[in-house]
Structure formats: C-alpha cells, structure tokens
Design brief:
Blueprint lengths: L1 E7 L2 E7 L6 E5 L4 H10 L5 E4 L3 H10 L4 E4 L1 H18 L18 H8 L7 H18 L4 H8 L3 H9 L19 H13 L4 H10 L6 H14 L12 H9 L7 H13 L1 H18 L6 H9 L4 H12 L1 H7 L7 H16 L6 H11 L5
Parallel strand pairs: 4-5
Antiparallel strand pairs: 1-2, 2-3
C-alpha cells in the first residue's frame, strides 16, 4: 500500500494494491493510522506490506497486521539518499564556481580586422561573372578552340574574349573604377571590427547598434559582413557553464556508465577539490551496489562505515534508516516494491479529473476498482 493524494477539497485517500496481481484492492477515504489499521483488521491474512517510509503507514501496519513483514520501497529509500547528497553538495557549492573557466574574448587587434576587410571588393555579381567567364574561356582554349569560335559559343564580343584570354588570372581583370566603389557600410566597419574583437558576434545586435549610429542600410548588409568576419576570424568556443547543485547531485547518484565524458571529467575535478564529497560519493556507490544486488544483510556494515566517517548529512540518513531498519533491510533484500502503486496513482488522478465537481468519493472508489477489474 502507498499514500495517494486525492486533492479534492481537503479529502485524502489511501490506495491498497495486491502485490502479486498488481491490481487495486481498495481505496480508503483517508490516510490516518486508524483508517488503515481498521481495514487491515477487517482483512486478515496480509503477509507482506510494501510501503513508503511514512511513519503513519508503519504504525497502521503494526496495529492492523502485526504478523506482516514490512518492506520499505527501494525507490523511496534511494530518493532519501539523493536528498541527503544534495544537502552535502549545497554545503560545498562555493567550490563549483572555480570549475567554470573565466570568460574569454577574442584576442585580436581590431587593426588586423581592418586590414583584412579593407580595399576594393572582390565579390559580387560582376566579379563572380568575370571569374566564371575567365574559367570558361580558358577551358575552351585548352581544348584548342579559337577565339572567334569561343565568342560565338559564349555570346560575347571578341574584344571581351581577347581580354579574358590574355589574363592569366581573373584578378587582373578586377581592377577598375567599379572595384573601388564604396559601400554604405564602410563608415561603420571600423566600429563593427571593434565590436567583433570585443566579442560581439550576433549580427542582429550589431545591426541595431550601427542603426542607432545612423546606418541607413538593411540588416542583410550587416549579416553579410558578419559572415565574412566569422569566416576570417572565428571565435573560440563559449565558456563552459558552471555546474549546478542539481547537476553534481545527479552525477554522484547516477551510475558512472551513464555519464558523458565531459560530466565524468567535471565530477572528477569536483571530487578532487572536496574530499568530503569524494567520500560521500564512495558511500553512495557502495549503497547502490548493495541495493541493486539485494544484499540487505550488509546494511549494518555499511551504516557502521558511514558513522565512522565525518559526514554529518549521511549520519542523518543512517539515523533515519535505523528508525525503520527491519523494513529497510527487507526492502533491500526482497523482490517486493510499490512500483505498481505509482502506476495506479496516475490512473486514479485521471479518473478524478474526469469526475471533477460531479461526483463524490464513493463513485471514485467504484470506478477505480472497476477499471482494474477488481471486486470488493
């Protein structure tokens, strides 16, 4: 059995599930010790009670079914351990800030950018056309075709073909008044170069900045220039984000094989800087092995090792285990769990929402039992 919150006004309930058939047996209108204990007394023969670590359910089980074996659910036990680890990480969260490298900007002299982007333009519709024509003419010349035949084939004047043929490289033809034409962005390139060197790499942000300085052109002009800068002077990777308390807690409490290489490296660095977290991680791994291999009989030895270590948060966890030790050992040894209950909780919430404001607890109870094919 497990706790189920009905959330209809101030009414709470308890769902009881058969461990073997995984079907709900009953839905109680309350979760008090008396309510659950009375149901157990009215249904003798219960041998195993699998529950969370609620003190109310533990007491109800002892009163209503004194001969039953109590099994603390493994998921709830490990959840308590995760919460304990998180408290330990919070105590040492100041060490996490030192793991993130300082933010770096592009170390480049803005004058280098100016030299790279200065001078006549070498790209555009006219220059691209000249380069294509130069390549075509020289390819036909290589095939042994004469200038007159090339002019007829390409539809160009013979003088144009002659200039293209006599130029060894297309750049020889890209010299003239048109190559020195100014761009409306030229007065603002020095500012864009400076901002790029400072780390401003978002074209839209740069466009808004130069527009405030009087730039009359469109955003596409700035984007094209930024693409040229990005190709010529790429920025380094952005600085790695500082790991959060939740991140570190997750890395410590997860199986090492499920961590990425970067996560494993960051966790190793954290544990090397903080011996207390390193020892905590060792105890967590040994507890996880104990739980996964169902070696509950070794729990006493694990508790003794933790209590011999100076780890206050884990001491609190072991104290809590000692208050319900028999059920915890059974939970770490037997195959039973309250996993089936969690699935039924979701179904009950769906039924409850369907009935919101239109029915009472009695109808909800019938629908829950009938939906699972149970009879009461």
């Amino acid at each position: 059995m497990d706790e189920f919150a009905l959330r209809k006004g101030h009414v709470y309930g308890t769902i009881l599930v058969d461990i073997e058939t995984r079907r709900p047996v009953d839905l109680l209108p309350g979760r008090s010790v008396e309510t659950v204990a009375n149901w157990l007394r009215d249904h003798p023969g219960v041998e195993v009670i699998c529950r969370d670590r609620s003190a109310s359910y533990a007491e109800a089980g002892r009163l209503g079914a004194p001969n039953a074996t109590h099994v603390a659910d493994r998921w709830h036990i490990y959840k308590n351990l995760v919460e304990t680890v998180e408290k330990s990480v919070v105590r040492h969260r100041a060490l996490l800030a030192d793991l993130a490298p300082a933010e770096t900007h592009l170390t480049m002299d803005p004058t280098a950018l100016a030299e790279r982007t200065a001078g006549p333009r070498r790209t555009g519709r006219l220059s691209d056309r000249i380069r294509d024509q130069h390549a075509q003419v020289h390819a036909l010349l290589h095939d042994g075709i004469g200038l007159r035949a090339i002019a007829r084939q390409l539809g160009l004047a013979r003088n144009t073909i002659r200039r293209l043929a006599h130029a060894a490289q297309p750049d020889e033809l890209l010299v003239g008044q048109w190559t020195g034409r100014s761009s409306i962005l030229d007065p603002y390139k020095s500012y864009l170069n400076q901002r790029w060197a400072e780390g401003g790499t978002v074209a839209r942000h740069l466009f808004h900045e130069v527009r405030e300085r009087g730039f009359p052109g469109s955003e596409e002009v700035v984007k094209k220039y930024v693409r040229e800068l990005r190709t010529a002077f790429p920025h380094p990777e952005p600085p790695r984000k500082r790991p959060s308390v939740r991140d570190v807690t997750s890395w410590i409490t997860r199986h090492p094989d499920s961590l990425t290489e970067e996560q494993a490296q960051q966790l190793t660095a954290i544990l090397a800087r903080c011996p207390e977290l390193d020892r905590t991680a060792e105890h967590v791994r040994s507890f996880a092995e104990l739980m996964n291999s169902r070696r509950g009989k070794h729990l006493h030895a694990w508790i003794a090792r933790v209590q011999a270590d100076d780890l206050p948060a884990l001491h609190t966890f072991t104290t809590g285990l000692g208050q319900d030790l028999d059920a915890v050992i059974a939970g770490l040894s037997l195959r039973y769990s309250s996993g089936a209950v969690e699935g039924h909780n979701n179904k009950i919430k769906m039924l409850k929402r369907q009935m919101f404001g239109r029915a009472n607890f009695d109808l909800l109870r019938k629908r829950v039992l009938l939906a699972a094919g149970s009879r009461s």
